[in-house]
Amino acid sequence: MENIRQSQDENAHLNASDLMHKKMIESVFKSFDFYCNEDENANYNHSTKFFRSVQIIYAILYRYLPGEMRVAIKQAFDEIATYNKKIDENKGLSDNNKKITKCKKEDEIGGQILQLCVLALQYSPVNTELKEILMTSDKVNFNEIVKKIRSDKPIGIFKEEEI
Amino acid sequence: MPNFLNLDVDHIYPEPTNEQFILSFFNRLYMNLHVFNFSLFIVWFGKHRVGKSISSVIFSIILDPTFLDNMEQRIVYSVDDLKREARIIRDKKIKGASIIYDEAGSGELSNQRWYEQKAKRINAILQSIGFLNPFLNLVTQDFMFINSQARKLSHGVFECRRTNNKYTVIKPLWISNDPWSSKPYRNYPLFCESINDDVVSNIYKIGKIRLGRLLDEKTEQKYEEISKAYKNKLLDEEDDEGNEEDDSESMIDKVEDAVNDILSNPDPVLSRMKNNYPVLNAQLIAFQYKLPIRVAQAVKIKAEKEFRNVVK
Fold first, then answer.
1. Distance between terminal CA atoms of chain B?
2. With contacts defined as CB-CB under 8 Å, which chain A residues touch B4?
3. Is the C or the N end of chain A the one with fewer CB within 10 Å?
4. How far B18 CA lies from chain A's nearest CA (Å)?
5. Least CB-CB distance to A157: which of B4, B18, B195?
6. Which ipTM was obtained for this model?
7. What b/e sequence results for B92-111 when a residue is b if at least 16 CB atoms lie within 10 Å of its CB, and e otherwise?
8. Which domains does chain B possess?
9. Which chain A residue has its CA at the smallest distance from B96's CA?
10. pTM of the full predicted structure?
11. What is the mean pLDDT of residues A142-148?
């Protein structure tokens, strides 16, 4: 009986954890457009845009990934870099063919990276980081920062957690 | 962070900066007071000379644009002054006005004086003052020095420490009350990154605020003068305590008078009769003869004893 209860508890924990991660992943995907629009050089064709998206996910997730996942993802990126170099060296192909081949490969590896990122997110807990705010005269200009703080609209990139 | 494929990930998703943390933390407090119609009661505690009061002054200057011009009046040392300032804030309709109750642990808010009428008055004021959206700072050496109601009413407890002359380290904690337990519990201020309410990031706990000497010399001096005036007054009052004997003598006279009066007519303060002896009510005695409750209790014991002697 106790085992059953324990297993139910574990499942409940997993479900809650899944939900949280699903929410996180959704929010990361939603933010693509924001970042793509922010980028000045965002004139990509479909395939490059996809690869760009993967890069952006990676950038977003980088700070939250456990060490091994970072290594795996870095290897995947390195693989693309090596492949691109080889493509560039292959002067026998026409420009069009080179581009298609390159994009195909990028799509493939980009997909793997995406999977890795999602997996990493699923299995890594949300980190809690203890921060120290430095408000000393060599770090901030007091009068200027006071002016900024007294804003009637929320400023900064943070929101206060409601827990 | 390394750049892969010439991708500047720091540009795409940079690490949050110190200034962003400062802006978010203080702006949140500012908006609570000035936009969301909340009040903010903070208890500052720490040992002597660690910079509690100066830190509360800096916070007040940041969060209340009217504080600096009225600093002399807004730093108060008694309930009467606090009430005066609350009235001014109400009449002038100042939102988010900061009041610093300095040395709160030794005044009428002291835990040791919980039984006094003034303590009850200030607790009533603290409970009802919220509609003015004040930013009330209670400065004391220990959280337990102030009375339990004030402790429960406070939103945050900021612990101050100092190891050098350059800055004070403040540990900010929000406190909540558990209705089934007398002990409050504490939370770190938590923030997470948000862009268009979409990105969930690490959860950042604000563990410490390193607050340097950000005030100009003139303001610091002004505070020192206000503080010294009170502390000198307190010291002088202690010198006058040579007259304590006279005070206690007059109190003894009052007790004697009250006892004699009760012996002649116990009815106004009579609670009940027990074995033909009158049992008196200390609260009624305190009310009738305008005595502090502890003195009234002494009167009750003395008078009851006298009654027993008379009957014998």
1. 94
2. 55, 58, 74, 77-78, 81
3. N
4. 6
5. B195
6. 0.73
7. eebebbbbbbbbbbbbbbbb
8. 9-231 (3.40.50.300), 247-311 (no CATH)
9. A150
10. 0.67
11. 93
